[in-house]
C-alpha cells in the first residue's frame, strides 16, 4: 500500500524538531507556529500538526488554549522524576549489556569512550556534551542491551528529553571529568561481564548527575527551562 505524503513527512519533521529542541535551537516556552513550520518544511499544516502532537506525547511540546503549541518547560521536580526513571531503566540496560553485549559491540563502546576521553583530556574544563546517537555512551548501551522495550524508551521516546536535561548541567565545573571516570567504571564492568557491578555503577553515575543538576537548578532558579 502506498503511504500518504503526511505519513512519510511526519517522522522527519518530528525528528528534526526534537533535535532542535534538545540542542536549544528552539527555546523552552517558545511558540511553535504551524504556518511558519509548514513553510520551513515545505508542507501543509496537516503533517506539522500531527508532528506537534507526537512531540507532545514525548513531553517536548505542550498545547495551550487560544495559544497553540509551545516548547515544553520543566520544573526541578520534572527533571528529578526523569532522573529517577533513568536510574532504574539505565541501571538495567547496563546489567543486560554486561551479560549479553557482543565483543564487537564492546569494542565500539570502548572506542566511543576513548573519543570522549581525548576530548576531555585536551580540554578538561569543557562540558561533557556528547554527540547524539551512536556517539552517545548511554545511547549505545541502551541500544545494544538486548531489550527492545528499554531500547525504544531510552533511544526514542525519552531520548531528546534526556539530552535536553543533560544540557542544564553539562557546564558545571568538574562534572565532565567526574562523569568520564564514572563511565570508565561502567565500561570496565560491562567488559568483565559483571552485570551486578555494571548496574550499580550506572545507578550511582545517574544519581550523582541528578544531585549535581538538582543543586544547580535550586541555586539558579532563573535557568530552569
Question: Order of SSEs, N→C?
Answer: HEHHEEHHHHHHH
Which stretches are poorly predicted, pLDDT < 50 over at least 5 residues?
Answer: 1-7
Q: Mean pLDDT, nearest integer? A: 87
Tell me how many strands there are: 3
What is the CATH domain class of the largest domain? Mainly Alpha
Q: Kindly report how far apart the N and C termini lie.
A: 43 Å
Task: Enter the CATH topology name of the largest domain.
Answer: Four Helix Bundle (Hemerythrin (Met), subunit A)
Gyration radius over CA: 19 Å
Q: What's the arrangement of strands in the largest beta sheet?
A: 1-3-2
Structural class: mainly alpha
Backbone shape? globular
Largest sheet: number of strands, sense, barrel closure? 3 strands, antiparallel
Q: Write the CATH homologous superfamily of the largest domain.
A: GntR ligand-binding domain-like
**Count of DSSP helices?**
10
Share of residues in strands: under 5%
Number of domains: 2
Helix percentage range: 55-70%
The CATH architecture designation of the largest domain is Up-down Bundle
Amino acid at each position: 500500500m502506498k503511504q500518504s505524503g503526511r505519513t512519510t513527512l511526519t517522522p522527519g519533521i518530528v525528528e528534526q524538531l526534537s533535535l532542535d529542541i534538545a540542542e536549544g535551537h528552539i527555546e523552552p516556552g517558545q511558540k511553535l507556529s504551524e504556518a511558519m513550520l509548514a513553510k520551513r518544511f515545505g508542507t501543509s499544516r496537516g503533517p506539522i500538526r500531527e508532528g506537534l502532537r507526537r512531540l507532545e506525547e514525548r513531553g517536548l511540546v505542550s498545547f495551550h488554549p487560544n495559544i497553540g503549541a509551545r516548547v515544553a518547560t520543566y520544573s526541578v521536580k520534572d527533571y528529578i522524576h526523569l532522573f529517577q526513571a533513568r536510574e532504574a531503566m539505565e541501571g538495567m540496560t547496563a546489567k543486560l549489556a554486561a551479560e549479553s553485549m557482543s565483543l564487537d559491540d564492546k569494542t565500539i563502546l570502548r572506542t566511543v569512550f576513548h573519543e570522549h576521553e581525548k576530548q576531555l583530556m585536551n580540554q578538561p574544563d569543557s562540558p561533557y556534551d556528547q554527540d547524539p546517537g551512536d556517539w552517545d555512551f548511554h545511547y549505545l548501551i541502551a541500544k545494544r542491551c538486548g531489550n527492545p522495550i528499554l531500547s525504544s524508551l531510552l533511544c526514542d521516546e525519552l531520548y531528546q528529553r534526556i539530552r535536553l536535561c543533560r544540557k542544564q548541567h553539562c557546564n558545571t565545573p568538574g562534572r565532565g571529568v567526574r562523569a568520564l571516570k564514572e563511565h570508565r567504571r561502567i565500561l570496565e564492568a560491562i567488559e568483565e561481564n559483571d552485570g551486578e557491578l555494571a548496574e550499580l555503577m550506572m545507578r550511582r553515575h545517574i544519581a550523582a548527575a541528578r544531585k549535581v543538576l538538582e543543586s544547580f537548578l535550586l541555586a539558579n532558579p532563573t535557568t530552569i527551562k
